[in-house]
Design a protein that fits this description.
The chain is an alpha/beta fold. The chain has eleven helices and 15 strands. It has two domains: 204 residues, Alpha-Beta Complex (DHBP synthase), CATH 3.90.870; 107 residues, Threonylcarbamoyl-AMP synthase, C-terminal domain (Rossmann fold, 3-Layer(aba) Sandwich), CATH 3.40.50.11030. The chain is globular and about 60 Å long. The structure holds threonylcarbamoyladenylate (TXA) and magnesium ion.
């Protein structure tokens, strides 16, 4: 299969290009497109055969359910069995935007989309290209992140091409995405609702609307792993995920102590003739300049928006340099985005070191 790349303006995507992508989706094709979080790999959500092709293209296990993207809250009628009050409130405040709501599913949604669960995840994205595509296609679009399974999510069209060239029909290239980490997933089938995956909209922001919203469990304690019932609550949230090829060691603790520990670890690995990559903030770049390590600069350590936007691209850059190990630091901030970054780093990590 030849993968066609269509470049569009982020804010004013060309109508003909969008119409072609929409037609491809209606025919059951696989089309990658930018959302405000990461690139999604879209497919007609009610076309079972197409959904199966999507799982195959991504090499995604069938037990990992997909998010269904729609143009507006009105479009979820027919996909869900009921819209709980909390969902109405959250949707009214945060849609369109980087928030996914898990609700009881309607029978029309194929099992292939929900991985056989009795719930379905839905979201209304805010990215102009995603919106244009949803409006043109007039379909619910199931879209996981457009990466090969367990690779870092794509934040640029080039990342999609890297993983999926020849495996999908089309990539709508609308430039880099804005947020850089995936949407917040909130389960509104339970009372109080619970965050299953932290994102840019985190507990601080969401509690303005739902004051008793429950915290996400730590990924290190195995989010998505079997609960009391033995059934994973959100299978795609298994701890080891979003990982680069090289094993990543995450250092946590006091900022100065972490810098020292990073430097020591780099020196030790270099002494063993290993190629070292560092997911570095601006401060580390200066501290490690004299060592022959590959640095992926995330920018200032207090700029969470910048770190989130750069994170996955930086992991891919280090992989492309074929490093043997990646060293990274826990973000310093305590806000919603810092928590989302921390969550992704912990899932990517082979090892966490408290200094
Ligand atoms: O920002 C995003 O959410 C991006 C863009 C493309 O929208 N999509 C994305 O999709 O990250 P994906 O498939 O990589 O992650 C979807 C997550 C998975 O962790 C999955 O387990 C969870 O949502 N999920 C989907 N349906 C669910 C359900 N019915 N119940 C619980 N979790 C669900
Ligand atoms: Mg994903």
């Amino acid at each position: 299969m030849k993968t066609e790349i269509v470049r569009v303006d982020r804010d004013h995507p060309d109508a003909d290009a969008i119409a072609r992508a929409a037609a491809c989706l209606r025919r059951g094709g696989l089309v990658a497109f930018p959302t405000e979080t990461v690139y999604g790999l879209g497919v007609h959500a009610l076309d079972r055969a197409a959904v199966l092709r999507l799982f195959e293209a991504k090499q995604r296990p069938a037990n990992d359910p997909l998010i269904v993207h729609v143009a507006s809250i009105d479009a979820i009628v027919g996909l869900v069995a009921e819209v709980p009050g909390a969902a109405h409130q959250l949707a009214a405040t945060f849609w369109p935007g980087p928030l996914t709501l898990v609700m009881r599913r309607a029978p029309t949604v194929p099992d292939e989309v929900t991985a056989g669960l009795d719930t379905v995840a839905v979201r209304v994205p805010s990215h102009p290209v995603a919106r244009a595509l949803l409006e043109a296609a007039r379909l619910p679009i199931a879209a996981p992140s457009a990466n090969l399974f367990s690779r870092p999510s794509p934040t640029r069209a080039e990342h999609v091409l890297e993983d999926l060239d020849g495996r999908i029909d089309m990539i709508v290239d609308g430039g880099p995405t804005d947020v850089g980490v995936e949407s917040t997933v909130v389960d509104v089938t339970v009372d109080p609702p619970v965050i299953l995956r932290p994102g840019m909209l985190g507990i601080d922001t969401l509690r303005d609307v739902i004051p008793d919203l429950a915290q996400p469990p730590s990924p290190l304690r195995g989010v998505g792993g079997p609960g009391a019932s033995g059934q994973p609550r959100s299978p795609g949230l298994l701890a080891k995920h979003y990982a680069p090829t090289a094993p990543l060691t995450l250092f946590r603790g006091d900022a100065t102590a972490v810098t020292r520990a990073l430097r020591h670890a780099a020196q030790r690995a270099l002494a063993q003739r290993r190629r070292v990559g560092v997911l570095a903030t601006s401060g580390d770049v200066g501290m490690l300049r004299d060592l022959p390590v590959s640095l992926a600069d995330l920018g200032p350590d207090d700029n969470m928006a910048r770190i989130a936007a750069r994170l996955y691209a930086a992991l891919r850059e280090l992989d492309a340099q074929r490093v043997d190990v990646i060293l990274a630091r826990d973000p310093t901030g305590g806000d919603d985005l810092a928590r989302a970054i921390r969550d992704r780093l912990q899932r990517a990590a082979a090892e966490v070191v408290d200094v």
